[in-house]
Amino acid sequence: MKVTGFELFHMDPMWLFLKIETDEGITGWGEPILEGKAHTVAAAVDEMMDHVIGRDPMHIERHWQRMMKGGFYRGGAVLNSAVSGIDQALWDIAGKKLGVPIYQLLGGAVRDRIRIYGHVNGGDPWDFGNPNLLIENLLKTTQVQLDRGLNAIKFNPSTILENIDSPKVLKEIVHRVEVVRDYVGDDVDIMLDFHGRFSLAMSRRIFPMLEHLNLMFIEEPVAPEYTSHFELIVNSTSIPIATGERLFDRSEYKDLLRTGIAVAQPDLSHAGGISEVRRIAAIAETYNVDIAPHCPIGPISLAACLQLDFATPNVLIQEQIIGLGHGPKSEFLNYFVDSSPMEAKNGYIELMTKPGLGVEIDEKAVRAASKKINRKRFPEWTHKDGSFAEW
What we know:
With about 400 residues, this protein is an alpha/beta fold. The chain folds into 2 domains: about 5-105, Enolase-like, domain 1, CATH 3.30.390.10; about 110-355, Alpha-Beta Barrel (TIM Barrel). Helix content is about 35%, strand content about 15%. The chain is built from 13 helices and 15 strands. The protein is globular and about 65 Å long. The model has no long low-confidence stretch (mean pLDDT about 90).
């Protein structure tokens, strides 16, 4: 079997799908996206496919090594995201060729189902200038996820923050979390995503104020460039700390795992695909660190995450945006011929049984929705003095 061609599909809101074709008629799908940089990654995929076209797609690790190391310059968000999507598609082909789900190729299932969590928010964009509306929207979107049967939710309780902000801002952040905790009770897990908006100082100030709320974890309290200081973060609170969505290979995790974080969050569309994230998970397990794969993007990336989850002992929970976040439920699930494997029963997705990624992509629906231009960007925020602020 040989790879004969590929196609890329730009999709709203900021997704990029990849289809790899073979001379045996077996196709594989991947999601090589870096949010906000779809065209840049598409160009990288085009170049990276030179390593794959005309070769046997079953040689996944050989292709991975060539793509990652064969160009002399290596690593980084763009190149790793391009390789990630190609890697996903090659695993999909391998599973389909052998008639088994990908998790069987990774050693078999270690669980029968995987727990998922949903996002909630206070509006789009969040109206932090109207506290009553903000709380109303938080509870409304929380109920949406509870009605889906989920028992774990995540949200960002802050807006733009100064490096050292006021007591009023701190109290407002804590109040939002308290309201949600009172609403859902103790049977629902709450995670907070700080999105790198907090400085080291602000993180350590607010942690003690949140400890009574029994959070599952706080995610990315500071920006990734401060990873070397994470021991300060971990040692300042009893709240489990999660991070890693903006780290791109196992070498960037090796020092972080020694700091005492509770959860690592590699992204299968950024951190080298299934091939590299399985290695990151194995390293994390040696430090008693769970993984919760980062996945606030599209359906193919989620399918790849689930295949890894089923075969990986130290997976805690899986992020996903079905039904909320970047579009209505139908927008996400309509790209599957049969979306029933993605249904969450009592907060879990059951073990998939179909070969490859475990789902069949509806190519007709993808083509109909594909955009020639997809230039969506993240918001650009500034502090009160006009300087750059973390989004």
